[in-house]
Design brief:
With about 80 residues, the chain is mainly α. It is built from four helices and no strands. Helix content is about 80%, strand content about 0%. About 5% of the residues are buried.
Length: about 80
């Protein structure tokens, strides 16, 4: 009973959140390998506001799926 567009949006958002979340956070390790002078803890502290905003956005879109479907429905 899920809309495939909504499900795709949720999956993409969850994967991007997983790429910056500790402990796996592959994107954080890429940044650390590029900027060797910056510690991993500093990078994680800098990423925390983005993790919080992604969690809020994911919660809102799960609670109100019509928000993610508004634009595709208005175009067709």
């Amino acid at each position: 009973g899920f809309d495939p567009v909504w499900f795709g949006v949720i999956i993409v958002m969850a994967v991007t959140l997983g790429l910056i979340c500790p402990p796996v956070g592959m994107n954080v390790f890429v940044i650390n390998s590029i900027a060797r002078e910056v510690s991993l803890g500093t990078i994680y502290r800098g990423v925390m506001p983005f993790i919080a905003s992604d969690l809020v956005r994911l919660t809102i879109l799960c609670a109100f799926p019509a928000l993610s479907l508004w634009l595709p429905r208005s175009m067709g």
